[in-house]
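Hi R.,

Here's the input for the heme C complex you asked about:
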Amino acid sequence: MRLRVAGSRRGRAGCLAVFGLAGAAVLSADSVPRGQEIFETKCSKCHALDKDEEGPRLRGVFGRPAASVPSFQYSDALKNSKFTWNETLLNTWLTDPDKMVPDTDMSFHLDSASDRKAVIDYLKSLAGR
Ligand code: HEC
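And here is the predicted structure with heme C in place:
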């Protein structure tokens, strides 16, 4: 197969498409370091892995019941919610916490679906460690 690269826009687009396909196969392995970077730049304003800050510690949050860190002062809204964090719920949460749990204290969301996936993969990779 010959790829036309230099100059033409179509050449570059073709190249990107090929790269995109190859990239997709390794996406979940790659998304862990990317998720860590997003965590460190965005979430760590309020969260640490092993101690409570403005938000609760997050190591092991994947698979943990919501609002279950005993030392953290959660909102009544989150305390009253009865679910265990999984991929779908974390994705809904990070899209819009206040829509999922009205009156939650977390006023932050991630617009990008791929950023959400990466950060969820990262949190998942820490579960049980
Ligand atoms: C502006 C501060 C802030 C930022 C930024 C923030 N959070 Fe939070 N987060 C909170 C607060 C406060 C709570 C507790 C919410 C409550 O009690 O209603 C919380 C709760 C959570 C919970 C529920 C934890 C549990 O024990 O049930 C998860 C999961 C979470 N945050 C993930 C994230 C992720 C992932 C990011 C980055 C993409 C992030 N948060 C960014 C403040 C923040």
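One thing worth noting: The mean pLDDT is 85.

Cheers,
M.
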